Amino acid sequence: MVVAALSGLPDGRAAIVATVDAFGRPVEVVLIRNGSTVRAFDARCTHRGCIVAASDSNLVCRCHYSVFDGQSGARLAGPAPSGLVELATAIVGNDVFVSL
Ligand code: FES
Asked: Which has the closest alpha carbon to 40: 93, 90, 94?
């Protein structure tokens, strides 16, 4: 599913994008662009599912203050048991596809 235009994403920083999954359910994904590549993560915190937010160079869950690395999604601090779940991506032209 196309979730964003590559040219519309900030380079080197995370962007949180609202979209829908294959069943039409609303979901939010973290997109991290580095030049012509993009990594995508489920924006739901692995603790209790709150949506993370970009904060400086990291991603923060404000429900119980878990912190995730802003490039790899790895857990850095807080009660989350693991890092954010990475999603498969593909870039075709200017379209960023994410498997949802
Ligand atoms: S839901 Fe994210 S830290 Fe608890």
From this structure: 90
Ligand 1 atom with the smallest distance to the CA of 65 is 3
61 burial type by CB count under 10 A (0-12 exposed, 13-18 middle, 19+ buried): buried
pLDDT tens column, 78-99: 999 999 999 999 999 999 999 9
What pLDDT does residue 70 have?
94
Mutate to test the pocket of ligand 1, among 64, 68, 75 (most ligand atoms within 8 A of CB): 64
2-98 fold: Rieske Iron-sulfur Protein (2.102.10)
Q: Where are the domains of the chain?
A: 2-98
Task: Note the pTM of the prediction, 2 decimals.
Answer: 0.95
Which of 61, 76, 82, 84 should be mutated for ligand 1, with most atoms under 8 A from CB? 61
Ligand 1, residues at Cβ distance < 6 Å:
45, 47-50, 61, 63-64, 66, 78-80
